[in-house]
Structure to design on (110 residues):
């Protein structure tokens, strides 16, 4: 718990700081959170990780590209301006427990 909160706080702080410099910030990684509100077991409840990350996306103008992937806690967040101008498709390419305890996800931009 303390480690997760510290990591989330650092991520939020870094994204806010970097987004002040550029509007091309992308975020990819293990966020330990599903953005599907029905998947309550895929969120760090004590620190309200879903709420914090949704607010971060609003503040940094991120598009939640990988929210449509069920049981996904690894995400790729892109600037909203990308999804407004390009076709973006996200999907799972490796199931959980094949290569690691996480699924592999990919985002195609065209």
């Amino acid at each position: 718990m303390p480690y997760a909160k510290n990591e989330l706080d650092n991520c939020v702080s870094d994204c806010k700081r970097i987004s002040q410099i550029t509007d091309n910030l992308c975020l990819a990684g293990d966020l330990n959170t599903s953005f599907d509100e029905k998947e309550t077991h895929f969120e760090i409840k004590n620190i309200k990780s879903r709420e914090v990350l949704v607010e971060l996306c609003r503040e940094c103008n991120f598009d939640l590209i990988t929210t449509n992937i069920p049981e996904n806690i690894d995400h790729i967040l892109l600037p909203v301006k990308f999804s407004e101008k390009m076709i973006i498709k996200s999907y799972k390419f490796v199931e959980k427990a094949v290569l690691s305890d996480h699924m592999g996800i990919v985002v195609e931009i065209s």
Summary: Residues 2-109 form one domain. The CA atoms of residues 62 and 79 lie 5 Å apart.
